[in-house]
Amino acid sequence: MSKPKSLLIAIDIGNTSTTCGVFLKTRLISKSYCESNDIPYIYSKIRNKWDDDVVFKAILSSVVPKISVKLINLIRHKFQEDKVHEVGRNVNFKLKMKYAPRQLGADRLVNAYGAKHFYCLPCLVIDFGTATTFDLVSHSGVFEGGLIIPGIQVSAKGLEAHAALLPLFEMNRSVRTLIGRNTKQAMTSGLLNGFGAMTDGLIERFKELYGKQLTVVATGGFARKIAAYAHLIQTVDELHTIKSLAHLYQNEIAK
C-alpha cells in the first residue's frame, strides 16, 4: 500500500473508556482503547507514529464535555494543521427521530446513524458500556428512541458499595454453570446470566412491537462478554460506533 496522504482519527469518548480508530477513508487501519482521561495522551501517541506530511482529520463523539474540550484544544494547539469535528457541536446531519434531540447522547446518535447505513432495518443497537442502551431504528429509518439501564460494571460496583461482605466483581471471569457454589461464583453468574437474560427478554419485547425480522447488533466494551450469555444477539461489533463515525465523516463532511 502506498503511503497515505490523509488519514481520519475517529474517537468515541465514553464515561469510563474511549475507543479510537485510524481510518483510510472508511477502512480501519488501527484501533486503540484507553481510559477516557488518557485520550489526549493516546491521541498524541497515535499522531506521532506518522510522518509529518500526513494530513490528519479527526471526528469524535463524546458524552464527557470536559475531556472532549481538552482533546480539541490539544489538537488545535499542538497539531495546528489538524481539523476536528465533534458530533453535536459542529457536525450535524439529518436523521429523523422521535426522541428529544437535545437529550440524546452523541454516541447513541452515531450508533443510530450507523445502524441505518450498515444493517437491514428495523435495527436494534445495544451498547454495553458504562450504561447499557437499547436504541431502535425503524423500518423507515426513524430513530424511535430506546432504553437506558445501568451497565454491568456500574451494577457490580453498586453491589460492592452496599453489601460489605460481597467480593469485588472481576469482568475477566466467566461461569460455566448457572448456579454458583460460592459467593464469587454466585455474584459472577448473577451479573452475567442476569444481563444476558435481561437482554434476551428486552429483545423479545422489541420484536413483539417491531417484528421478528428485527436486526440486533451489540456494541460497546462489554458487548462480547455479555453476548456469550444472551441468545438473541445476531451481530457483535465493539467498533460499531467508530466505524459509524468514519462513515458519517465520509458521507456528511468529506463529500
How far is it from the N-terminal to the C-terminal residue, by CA?
Answer: 24 Å
- Could you say what the CATH topology of the largest domain is called? Nucleotidyltransferase, domain 5
Helix-and-strand structural type: alpha/beta
Name of the CATH first level of the largest domain:
Alpha Beta
Share of residues in helices: 25-40%
Order of helices and strands: EEEHEHEHEEEHHEHEH
CATH-derived architecture of the largest domain: 2-Layer Sandwich
What does this entry look like structurally?
- With 255 residues, the protein is α/β, with parallel strands linked by helices.
- It has two domains: 6-91, Nucleotidyltransferase, domain 5; 101-243, Nucleotidyltransferase, domain 5 (2-Layer Sandwich).
- 37% of the residues lie in helices and 25% in strands.
- It is built from seven helices and ten strands.
- It has helices at 39-47, 65-78, 106-118, 152-162, 183-210, 223-227, 240-253, and strands spanning 6-13, 17-24, 27-35, 55-62, 83-86, 123-128, 131-137, 143-150, 215-219, 235-236.
- A five-stranded mixed β-sheet has the order 3-2-1-4-5, with helices on both faces. A five-stranded mixed β-sheet has the order 8-7-6-9-10.
- It is globular.
- The two termini are 24 Å apart.
- The relative contact order is 0.16.
What are the salient characteristics of this protein?
255 residues; Nucleotidyltransferase, domain 5; 2 domains; 5-stranded mixed sheet; 7 helices; 10 strands
Present the secondary structure layout.
Layout: E1 6-13, E2 17-24, E3 27-35, H1 39-47, E4 55-62, H2 65-78, E5 83-86, H3 106-118, E6 123-128, E7 131-137, E8 143-150, H4 152-162, H5 183-210, E9 215-219, H6 223-227, E10 235-236, H7 240-253
Parallel strand pairs: 1-4, 4-5, 6-9, 9-10
Antiparallel strand pairs: 1-2, 2-3, 6-7, 7-8
